[in-house]
Specification:
Blueprint (H helix, E strand, L loop, with lengths): L5 H8 L3 H25 L5 H27 L14 H6 L7 H7 L1
Helix pairs in contact: 2-3
Length: about 110
């Protein structure tokens, strides 16, 4: 059987819900740990740098939570712009992404 068959291609293009949840749990835990470390850094740390870092972490956490909702409703791994599957390699690197690479480029 060839790897070019639709059945094999489908498995390679989509993460299972369990795999997606594991990756998202890891992302959430990492971001929460980073936020906790910033909170514990105290007043001696540059406030402006911490503020930017916290804003970025909160934005990513919101994206992770939105990805959990997509796992729940079955739309995880589908580009929110073109409705095509997001390549599994992209989801492995950025498990909370909403877009395939071409659509992400157009959004930026």
């Amino acid at each position: 059987m060839s790897l070019d068959t639709p059945q094999a291609a489908t498995r390679l293009e989509r993460l299972t819900a369990h795999e997606a949840r594991q990756r998202l749990e890891h992302e959430r835990a990492s971001r929460l740990t980073q936020l906790l470390a910033i909170d514990e850094a105290g007043p001696n740390t540059e406030e402006q740098v911490l503020s930017v870092q916290k804003d970025t972490l909160r934005r990513v956490l919101a994206q992770v939570e939105a990805a959990f909702a997509r796992v729940q409703d079955g739309s995880y791994g589908i580009c929110q712009s073109c409705s095509k599957p997001v390549p599994v390699e992209r989801l492995e690197i950025l498990p909370y992404t909403q877009f395939c690479v071409p659509c992400q480029r157009n959004a930026d």
